[in-house]
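Exercise: predict the structure of this protein bound to nicotinamide-adenine-dinucleotide.
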Amino acid sequence: MLKVGVFGVGHLGKYHLNNWKEIPEVTLIGFFDPNNEHAHEVEATYGLKRYMDEEALIAACDIIDVVTPTHLHFPVCEMAIKMGKNVFVEKPMANTIEEGKTIVNMVKEANVKLQVGHVERFNPAYTALKDLELNPLFIEVHRLAQFNPRGTEVSVIFDLMIHDIDIILSIVKSDVKTISASGVAVLTDTPDIANVRIEFNNGCVANLTSSRISMKKMRKIRLFQKDAYIGIDFLEKNTEIIKLQQPGDNDAFAFDIETHQGTKTISITNPVIEQGNAIKAELSSFVHSIMNDETPIVNEMDGYLAMEVAHQILEKISKSTSKVSQTLAQDDSPREDLNTD
Ligand code: NAD
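Solution:
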């Protein structure tokens, strides 16, 4: 039995508690949260021990689950890793690049396992594609959410887009070549909506739009590759594959189209989506990697690489924003030279 301690029992922390309880290989030891209201609710609902001493909780556990606000991921991870414990940390792995690098190095030195909560990797709409070879040339991504003050202590890039950055980095087997980005801070001090273009060395281009000020929700990735279009709806949990049928394929729905290159057969398939809970799947997968001494599916390096791209995006946005304000300032002069008659 692996012993688990949870840091942070706010909105997501409670989902984690519910899911840890359903994993037979673990036992919940206790939690740490300075918020009395959250702590009392958890004590009453889950009958779980509240620790007032962080180190005592860490010492009593094999796995520390970090579900605190983002700026506290690093100090809790640092404490747990230094005490030789395995860590599950919510996304983004840390706040700064330095913190991210330090976590990567500490995990290696302490020889512990760390998984980052990039939960979409366990979304059944995505895992349904595990047998399909993904080799996209173009990727279109939309992640739109209604405004919710929770999570807005970080930009929409770290709050929402980081999920898609991680998915794209896990699909495209190539390094990032260039990034261009623009974003606008509408309701908070950091970008609430952003559009980003990432070009990879292998020629693949990803176009990502994220917004946390939308009227409706959407979480979709569309992949275009030489012989197929793949649509993944993370929210509705369905996946569609439209592809050129190959000899021997036996797809249920197929039709012919005439092209200048002759008749082509197109098939449309919807892989079976297993009903499942992605949070339970990611936590179970982490437990499995510890018990079998395997690398976690979303390890510290994946967490770091997603952070690195997210930071580059933010830098581009801040440069493009200051360029726009400079141009606006320059353009403030009256247009005397224009004939407006
Ligand atoms: P929240 O504000 O609802 O909860 C955070 C909790 O941490 C609060 O109860 C707070 O009192 C507690 N806390 C503060 N300081 C602490 C400390 N030093 N030690 C222990 N606990 C402390 O926030 P949330 O929405 O639950 O988000 C928590 C984390 O989860 C964030 O990093 C966020 O990015 C991440 N998150 C991930 C997803 C996802 O899809 N994977 C979704 C939502 C949130």
